[in-house]
Q: What sequence folds into this?
């Protein structure tokens, strides 16, 4: 039923395969998963890896461990949380794909921020932008500051679902941003372009121009993907 996986693979891989089998209805007749020992044998991994995988699925509401009875599929287990493999997210090809996802979301986030931002929101965006420059001046990669800048824009929309979505993505964006900012630091023209693009987004939001803000955010993320491609990373 399951594919053997290398011993070095993380429990996330096991959890994903179990989730796939649940989606296929493999356990509908009995309503519960095989025992920990059986799963460990089928996957070719330790029982510790299986326990970690089950724990992840439990935390996501997919399964329900019952004392003395086993691990059962939750009654609401068909409602799936969004999951992204963190190891894959750091791979060059995936970085470009996540940038495309960011572009779709953050273009609208920027437009909403331009329409709804308050003076206090604008002050937070300006401060976040300044912290990126400060980090670079101090020789740091500015990854956390870059993520915080985009988060400040999301907060300015006043829409908690934008903030929640980007908070989720930030787990994976930081890995991707390390790749993009490392690439951009290799060339002065790349660094200058990024500074100008960030400034353009902030300026459009400051001017309460949603069309310009949307375009500036799209341009920034299109260019981020282009810079990766030019450097042979994408």
A:
């Amino acid at each position: 039923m399951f594919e053997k996986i290398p011993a070095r693979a993380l429990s996330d891989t096991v959890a994903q395969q179990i989730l796939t089998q649940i989606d296929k209805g493999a356990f509908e007749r009995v309503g519960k998963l095989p025992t920990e020992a059986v799963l460990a044998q089928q996957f070719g991994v330790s029982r510790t890896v299986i326990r970690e995988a089950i724990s992840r699925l439990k935390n996501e509401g997919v399964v329900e461990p019952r004392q003395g009875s086993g691990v059962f599929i939750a009654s609401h287990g068909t409602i799936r949380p969004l999951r992204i493999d963190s190891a894959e997210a750091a791979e060059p090809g995936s970085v470009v794909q996540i940038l495309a996802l960011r572009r779709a979301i953050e273009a609208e986030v920027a437009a909403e921020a331009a329409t709804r931002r308050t003076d206090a929101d604008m002050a937070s965006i300006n401060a976040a932008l300044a912290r990126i420059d400060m980090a670079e001046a101090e020789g740091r990669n500015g990854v956390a500051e870059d993520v915080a800048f985009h988060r400040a824009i999301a907060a300015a929309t006043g829409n908690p679902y934008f903030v929640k979505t980007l908070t989720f993505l930030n787990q994976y964006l930081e890995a991707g941003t390390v790749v993009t900012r490392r690439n951009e630091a290799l060339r002065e023209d790349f660094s200058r372009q990024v500074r100008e693009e960030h400034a353009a987004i902030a300026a459009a939001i400051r001017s309460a121009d949603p069309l310009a803000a949307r375009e500036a955010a799209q341009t920034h993320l299109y260019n981020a993907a282009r810079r990766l491609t030019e450097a042979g990373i994408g």
